[in-house]
TrEMBL record:
Residues 1-15 have a biased composition (Low complexity). It comes from Pterulicium gracile. Residues 1-64 are annotated as: Disordered. This is Uncharacterized protein.
């Protein structure tokens, strides 16, 4: 997961989904520099070469895109992000038939409940599952400052989308690696991962 030091995410597309809005501006300090948390959120994973191909498009069919023609998060990509966010959010998604927290399967994508957010512990777990280590406190403080959060400082789904809008605009391959870490293939299909298999045992 990485973020550029000199740009901000553009407005996200409108949707009837309760987790998105037409415009998601970043909060910035008056007169301060643009978002600059990239240096603290670099993934320790090595980059993968992209010879003779556009970054982030290798092994992906032409119709599978993370950003649409207007540069906004595509509907299919947003559905993947909802699933990832739902694995770590509070409150947990409920299994409507059982009234208990839902566990994901390769055939079922999770949906975060309305008003869901990532607590400090959820943020740490997501960062660890994505990059192998939790974020430093300074990085968390900047996420709270620049991204959409609850009054208590929990990262909202809007803020989660802001993170991935910004990252994907500047390093799409890093986003593909994040998706792979959470069990998605280059067709944005959820497939079984070793981590999920171990958690079910």
């Amino acid at each position: 997961m990485s973020f550029p030091s000199s740009s901000q995410p553009s407005s996200l597309s409108s949707s009837t989904d309760p987790f998105t809005t037409a415009t998601l501006p970043l909060k910035t300090k008056p007169g301060g520099p643009p978002l600059h948390i990239i240096d603290r959120m670099q993934s320790p994973r090595p980059g993968t070469p992209e010879p003779d191909s556009r970054q982030g498009r290798r092994n992906a069919p032409a119709e599978v895109q993370l950003l649409d023609d207007e540069g906004q998060i595509s509907d299919q990509f947003e559905r993947c992000l909802q699933h990832i966010f739902a694995k770590y959010c509070e409150p947990r998604p409920l299994d409507e038939s059982m009234g208990s927290p839902t566990r994901s399967t390769a055939a079922q994508l999770l949906t975060p409940p309305e008003g869901a957010y990532l607590s400090d512990a959820g943020l740490d777990t997501w960062a660890t599952d994505t990059n192998g280590a939790p974020f430093a406190q300074e990085t968390k403080d900047e996420l709270i400052e620049f991204m959409d959060v609850t009054e208590q400082g929990g990262l909202t789904f809007k803020g989660f989308l802001q993170i991935y809008q910004l990252q994907t605009e500047n390093d799409e391959e890093e986003t593909w690696r994040d998706l792979s870490s959470h069990g998605f293939d280059r067709n944005l299909r959820l497939v079984s991962t070793r981590r999920e298999n171990e958690s079910e045992q």
